[in-house]
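call fold(seq) -> tokens
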Amino acid sequence: MDLSPIKTIKARLQAMWFWQVFGVCAMQKLWAKFLVAVVLVSGYVVAMAGLELLTPIYNLAEMNRTEGVLVVAQQPLRNIYGSKVIIRKDDGEKAFYRGAIRDSEDIILKAAIGKQVTVWSQIEYSVRPPFVYERFWHIQEGEKILYDYDSWLPGRLFGRAQKSPALFKFSLFMFIVPLVIIVSACRNPVKS
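ret:
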């Protein structure tokens, strides 16, 4: 097996300015290693909070509305996030949704499996896979509410008004300042 293309790619990556600054120079000093860790963590939080700010908060009338037979309502074992709902539409096509199902809602939704339901959903962006997905927010069986959007709306509005912008700004500050410090300290990186 010829490894020369792999060695070539590795050599090119190691010759890049970015690698020389963050992979070589910054790793020689303990304080710079700490700042690299701060940059990585705050960069993740910037992405997470920024994507949360990109997802609009709609009222039910503005959301996607889909009708079909409830096939799956599943809550993960460890937490409520990552729950999924699958419905089979009248044309036989399945619609997949992700969201958060609490224990009380899990019991109600499982009892509705096999029944005709209406799901209100919207596109949501995330830093974790899947990065873009359809998020369910309200589920009804006829007039009976199985999953209520009104119970989630106050938290979403509070988070959007208070938590997300402040978290985004603080994390962006914690991303840029250590990044500038590392780059200025390693302006002339040493060749490895």
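The chain has a mean pLDDT of 89.
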